[in-house]
Amino acid sequence: MARANAARLESPAVWALCAAPLLLIFYWGFTSQLTANPVEFVLRDLGLWGLRFLCLTLAVTLLAKYANLPWLMRYRRRIGLWAFAYVALHLTVYLGAAHEFDWAEIGADIAKRPYITIGMAAFALLIPLAVTSAAAVRRRMKPRSWRALHRLVYVIAIMGVAHYFLLVKADIRSPLLYAAIVATLLGARLVASARPRKARAAG
Amino acid sequence: AAPLKYSPNRMSIDENKTPLDDVTGYNNFYEFGTGKEDPAAYAKMMRSRPWTITVDGLCDRPGSVDIDELIRRFPLEERIYRMRCVEAWSMVIPWVGFPLASLIKSVGPKSSAKYVAFETLRDPRQMPGQRSAVIQWPYREGLRLDEAMNPLTLLAVGLYGQTLPNQNGAPIRLVVPWKYGFKGIKSIVRIRLTDRRPQTSWQMLAPGEYGFYGNVNPAVDHPRWSQAKERRIGEFFRRKTLPFNGYGEQVAHLYRGLDPRKLY
Question: Could you say which DSSP state residue B198 is in?
Fold first, then answer.
């Protein structure tokens, strides 16, 4: 009975955890805690959460397989979609609040500044992943091509870190931390995928 | 903070002042961390009294002086100036201080002196940000002597009528309103007159992004963002950035004949 109740709470709990950073921004907004420069703060915060959720999405698969938490796989899609949501909101704040939809200025920004170019490209690559996350679309795709397409997330995570790295003025400690996290997550996959091949070769 | 005695000054601008909480709660002072709220959180670790400032180099009367003695020596003025950060945000700040020119004249600069070099305190026990080599400590800045002697150039010892809060560069800092904020070196311990262009911290760190002059110029982008507009703290829509931060009338003559694109 208790276990059934816990299972019923699991999904809303994951949902609430994913939404918490966004709700916190609203709470800080209503209580005037978004610093003296709210646009900049919200822009940074949403971008960081986009990157964090990308890392989480990558971590879910590994944790499910190697930390014996298979139930986590039920939420991989949701966590990935929240990553997309945070990145999309980050982009919206960049376009609307940071640049007031001044398209000439935004165009120049994309063309001139590598970190903006990379950020935009990363967002563009996320769109097909978000679209093909829909169960109806996924059903219509060959599992093989769906998996191949979703491997793009590795590239996107690297681009996210590069985007963060290039915008920082002097203190690269935080982008370095995310670079290390992404490197670990991707490295673990590489090791995991190399192992069975070796086993086969040995056998 | 203790109240200061000062007189108003005609070089003040008539624009809405940025609230004190924003001036003291949102700024860059990497000696206390690289976050905008780190200075307010950690600057209490610094002791800004007693404080000695050394003025030396190419002058007739080099020496060291206590900060309170120095403040007594020069009449204080209130200067309400625009402050434009290189990161494209800006404030309007009522500083209290005295012209840097008064101090330089008082030590008798030699005719060979062409530049002024400034240094911030270096003490990782009081300045936890200095425990990481984010930049090469101590923080260094410099001005050409004629820039230093311009009547706009201020040594600020107060803010909103009170002595400077630590996070804003207590007990004494430079204010050069036509230049980006990073030129306004804080918590100064040494001022040196020299015949060579001094090294400056941001130029040492990223010469492609920060020049010696650091003059506010909407036409010259920072490599990673445009400088054409700025967000005045407290306003939602951005304003156009003015050449020399709106102080062109007083300072443009200093740069005649120099390529303005080199003046970032």
Answer: P
